[in-house]
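Model it.
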Amino acid sequence: GAQDRARPPSNEAQQLNHQTTKRDKQQSNEHPDEYVALASSAVMLARCAWAGRAQARRPLQGPARSVRLQQRDSSALAPRTYASPWVTALQAKMQGSDSRQLLQTALKRAALARCSQERAERALAVAQGRHTGLAVVVEGLYDLGNVAAVLRTAEAVGISTVHVVNGFQDKWKTPKSRVSKGSHAWLDINSWQETEQCTSQVREDGFVLVAACCDDDAVPLQDIAFDRPTALLFGNEAQGLSQQAVDAADVKMRIPTTGFSQSLNISVAAAIAMHWGACRWQEQNGLMLGQGDCTLATDSLDAMETELLARAAFGSSSNTRNHPVAVQYAAQFATNEG
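Modeled.
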């Protein structure tokens, strides 16, 4: 039983193992050339197999890749200024409010008055690490757990915008709490029914589209410069990205693997790419570790601080139940400011 399996080897077994090892050593000493040749053959076979695999996976060096990269490099792209969804929703609620900046200031003061000092300080600190130049697009995921994992990782590395294409309609709004840990409440999540609509809007917002796939002509992740605002596209667990999404991308990207597995789970692949992208984006913009690109523009930082403070005080901007309270607070402060 279990005791027999846990019992150490007997003296007979140890002696047999010792004799076998001793015989192998004697044979290797008697015929060293054969053993060296055998070992060398094994190494050469492994190298040939790896070289063949590397050759098959090597990124395309011909005109197709050059054109893609030239198109990408010639694009004059700049990070878009962040606009607080809470301010947008509140502006729609408060008819006759002409000044968005005045309303944003009033909402920020209202949120600070309603939040505890600890919660407010936490929201302001997180805003310092947010990126507006990185975004994530997930297309047609089956597993809500994977959706929740992607949202959690995106929020953790400072990405504020996630696009969900054809993924459970509104079910992602309440993903598994055990996985997401409430991270979805702090993200700007956009739902799309059509891939073309999503990619067109993301491109219009000034992002380069990078599609994650296993194609042989895909560029390794570490070769992506992340020197432009970049949106990472990930497909579902079975088929990956649709051909429509791949065709819409500026660059195809793969995560190199050295084992027998040719692909990674969607949540793992997204986590690796997002973390790598965030680090590279910080380097390209001269940011310190943990510093977001929102700190490069006063308007974006102020809008991000307002958004996170409003969510900490009143909940998500889509939570219309708290809008009357926010309207009351903001109207009061706006009147005083006016």
